[in-house]
UniProtKB/TrEMBL annotation:
Occurrences of domain DUF1541 (ranges): 66-117, 131-180
The protein's name in its UniProt record: DUF1541 domain-containing protein
UniProt region (Disordered), positions on chain: 30-60
Keyword match Electron transport: no
Tagged with keyword Signal: yes
Pfam families hit by this protein: DUF1541
InterPro entries: DUF1541
Species of origin: Exiguobacterium sp. (strain ATCC BAA-1283 / AT1b)
Key words of the record: Signal
Signal peptide: 1-23
Length: 187
C-alpha cells in the first residue's frame, strides 16, 4: 500500500513538473511571437510620395548630398541592410524611435524607426525626451497616423529620404527615414 501511495505521489510530481515546463515554453513562445510581431514592418509603406512635412529644413551641408549614393547599414526593415541607396533628400531635425498601438487595432509596435519631430501632432519644442507621450501624424505604416505613442529614443541628426532596391529586387522610392549613422560611404 505504501509503495502504491509513493508511486502515485511520484507520478503527480512528474506530471506537475511537465505541465509547468510546458507552461514556460508556451509563455516563452508567445513572448517571442509578440516581439516578432512588434518588429514586423510588413505593413510599412516602403515607398513614399516624396512629400515632406511643413517646417522641415533641408540640411545645409549634409554628409551625403542629394544625388549621391551611400551603403545602408540600417536593418529596421527587411532587405535594406547592405544595399546601395541614392539620396533624394537630406534634412536636419530630431528623430525618434517610438512605440505605439495602431489606430486600426492589433499588436503594439515597439521601437519603430523613425519618426521625425515634424511628424508629430502639435509637439512641444524639439527635442522631446525619452518617455514623453505624443500623437503621431506620420503614415509610414497602417494605423500610425493619429496613434498615441511613447518616445523610446531621441537623436538630433541629419535624416535622409532614399531610393533603393531591396535584396530581393523590390524598388523602393522616397523611403522615410534613414539616419546619418545608418549610412556609410561607398567603397
Amino acid at each position: 500500500m505504501k509503495q502504491k501511495k509513493w508511486m502515485t505521489g511520484l507520478g503527480v510530481m512528474i506530471l506537475a513538473t511537465s505541465l509547468a515546463a510546458c507552461g514556460d515554453t508556451a509563455e516563452d513562445t508567445s513572448m517571442e511571437m509578440s516581439e516578432e510581431q512588434s518588429m514586423d514592418h510588413s505593413a510599412m509603406d516602403h515607398s513614399g510620395s516624396g512629400e515632406v512635412p511643413g517646417g522641415l529644413k533641408e540640411a545645409s551641408d549634409p554628409t551625403y548630398p542629394v544625388g549621391s549614393t551611400a551603403m545602408m547599414t540600417a536593418d529596421h526593415m527587411p532587405g535594406m541592410e547592405g544595399v546601395e541607396a541614392t539620396i533624394v533628400g537630406a534634412y536636419d531635425t530630431t528623430v525618434y524611435a517610438v512605440s505605439y498601438t495602431p489606430t486600426t487595432g492589433g499588436d503594439p509596435v515597439e521601437d519603430h524607426k523613425w519618426v521625425i519631430h515634424e511628424e508629430l501632432d502639435n509637439p512641444d519644442e524639439a527635442p522631446l525626451s525619452e518617455g514623453d507621450e505624443v500623437v503621431l501624424a506620420a503614415d509610414h505604416m497602417e494605423g500610425m497616423d493619429g496613434a498615441e505613442a511613447t518616445i523610446d529614443t531621441v537623436e538630433e541628426t541629419t535624416v535622409y529620404m532614399v531610393d533603393y532596391t531591396t535584396e530581393d529586387g523590390e524598388e523602393v522610392t522616397n523611403h522615410k527615414w534613414v539616419t546619418e549613422s545608418e549610412l556609410e560611404a561607398m567603397k
